[in-house]
Amino acid sequence: MAIEIERKFLVISDSWRHSVIASSPMRQGYLSTTDHTSLRVRISGDKAHLNIKSGGIRIRRLEYEYAIPLQDGLEMLAELAQGALVEKTRHRVRFGSHVWDLDVFEGANAGPVVAEVEL
């Protein structure tokens, strides 16, 4: 069983930008979402993943992620995704003893910057 423990924060400054160690554009779409589970496909570079996550806002959630062929992921985004795709650039930032993911949203969700750290 895969358990995810993460914290998310809304970022109000861009002072983190000088500490970026890597960046990658991402596109993701939700194939199914219920109160209990979400199923999404994510494309990052030349890699695609299918992700299943238990729903709700909880401290710990179940999360499973599987690599899938890129062409399958692209087809799923084009044909099966519900609603607008989530487009963002994920920046990796080392701060203290953790590496944080900072997501800068684009497209339909443009505006917020969210920092998350997995524990």
Keyword list:
1 helix, single chain, mainly beta, 119 residues, 8% helix
Shape: globular
Number of strands: 8
* Mean residue pLDDT: 92
Percent helix range: under 10%
**Can you write the helix and strand succession as a string?**
EEEEEHEEE
Structural class: mainly beta
What is the percentage of strand-forming residues?
over 45%
Please tell me about this protein's structure:
The chain is mainly beta and 119 residues long. The chain is 8% helix and 64% strand. It has an 8-stranded antiparallel β-barrel with strand order 1-5-4-3-2-6-7-8. Strand 2 and strand 3 form a beta hairpin. It is globular.
Give the secondary structure arrangement, pairings included.
Elements: E1 3-10, E2 20-33, E3 37-44, E4 47-54, E5 60-68, H1 70-79, E6 82-95, E7 98-106, E8 113-118
Antiparallel strand pairs: 1-5, 1-8, 2-3, 2-6, 3-4, 4-5, 6-7, 7-8
In short:
The protein is mainly beta.
